[in-house]
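Posting for a labmate who doesn't have an account.
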Amino acid sequence: KFFNSNKYYNNVKIKFYLYRLNYLRLSNPFIVNIIFSLICIICDYIQLETLIFDNIDSKYLNNILKHLVYLPKLHSLVFSLVDYVQDPNILFHHIFRLSKLKYCKIIYQTKYDQQPIAIYLTEFTINPIEYLVINNRFSIDSLSDIFLCLPKLRYLSIDCLVGSTDLDIDQDPIALE
């Protein structure tokens, strides 16, 4: 069997740099699919602190989200999705499980005529997110859960808050400290 030392050297060199990488921006769906298809590949990015997904198709979203927990130093995450997200609950549930995350920006689309689904986050423990940006319509029913789940929140930006269709809803006042 022929041994290609040059190929081996380049492979080792790439592996070495993966361990040192702390910032990664992905905009090619094929690369995203390759990196997040196997757990052994994403585990090579142990120093990764900032991860940006730019113009990614939502069909890759589930695979990406389930692998994010294997990035122990990830503290900044940006999602920019090019198509509709069927269930934003899945997106938020995975993001709020990340124990080191401090900054999160989510750009996604839902159908305009569709009423935003209320996202219930009460099952989560306290999350360290300090900056949260949601560039989409967001249900006002979920706002109190955001504040309860994110006690360290210092900055919140929501593109469009959509009111409740339930006229009898009794919201407690939200107190910020």
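Reply:
Got it, the structure tokens are right above this. The two ends are 68 Å apart (CA to CA).
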